[in-house]
Amino acid sequence: MFRLTGALSEQEFLHHVVQRSGQNLLECLQCGKCTGGCPIASEKVSGPRRLIAEILSGMRNEALKNPTWWYCVSCGTCMTRCPVDINMYQVATALCELAQEGGIAPSERDIHLFEELFLKSVEKYGRVKELRTVAAYNVITKNPLKDMDKAVTLMRKGAFSPLEILSGWAKDRKVSRIFALARRTSEGGHE
Ligand code: SF4
Ligand code: SF4
Q1: Counting atoms of ligand 2 from 1, which one is nearest the CA of 68?
Q2: Nearest ligand for residue 23 CA
Q3: Quick one: which of 156, 160, 152 has its CA closest to 129?
Q4: Is the pLDDT of residue 6 over 70?
Q5: pLDDT tens for residues 40-79?
């Protein structure tokens, strides 16, 4: 069982995360089943178990700068493996809000730009066009050869075709309409 020993402000951090996420993190057993199946856990990205340990210990800055929730792809693997049903997506959303409110910069400098380009592609074509999205990101960040080695490996494995850049420009109007509706709803409009 975890016992908080930090300053009051650190203890409050745990309560804020629990309140916002609706997840009782105090039930976490630190069993590590979540991180064992997490596709983004690596040497650089600790994974959900460590992130929860930081929150439980009141390590506000470490948790808000932990790249796990910035990189989280919401695959749900951790949730299906968790014996106490902790929903990491809700925890990641709560941390994202708290980081924004606290003016904490993302661990990956241009992550918001990537998100924007990713969503623009989905809005326009109904799915992400990997090559175009990454090419646009590399051009804007002035790093044209970034991750080219990975692109070659993915192409060899058939994950996407280099011809994608030349074809498939048809717009998906249905998906564009969904985006427009969501935008109007979040701005307080009515349908
Ligand atoms: S699987 Fe659940 S209980 Fe185990 S460490 Fe992860 S969040 Fe905690
Ligand atoms: S939902 Fe996020 S934290 Fe959980 S396994 Fe998937 S990538 Fe990892």
Answers
A1: 3
A2: 1
A3: 160
A4: no
A5: 999 889 999 999 999 999 899 999 999 998 888 888 999 9
- Rounded distance from Cα 191 to ligand 2 centre (Å): 34
Question: Which residue type does 74 have?
Answer: S
> Token pair 């009515």 is at which residue?
190
In whole angstroms, what is the distance from residue 59 CA to residue 185 CA?
Answer: 36
Q: Whose atoms come closest to the Cα of 48: which ligand?
A: 2
What is the average pLDDT value for the chain, to the nearest integer? 86
pTM score, whole prediction = 0.71
Residue with structure tokens 């051009």? 139
CA atoms lying within 13 Å on the CB side of residue 105: 4
Query: Under a CB-based contact definition with an 8 Å cutoff, are residues 55 and 17 in contact?
Result: yes
Residue with CA closest to ligand 2 atom 8: 38
Burial of residue 69, with CB atoms counted within 10 A of its CB: 0-12 exposed, 13-18 middle, 19 or more buried: buried
Domain-by-domain residue ranges, the chain? 8-101, 111-186
54, 63 in Cβ contact below 8 A? yes
Residues 149, 1: Cα–Cα separation, whole Å: 45
Which residues are within 8 A (CB) of 99 and not within 5 positions of it... i.e. 6 or more apart? 64, 106
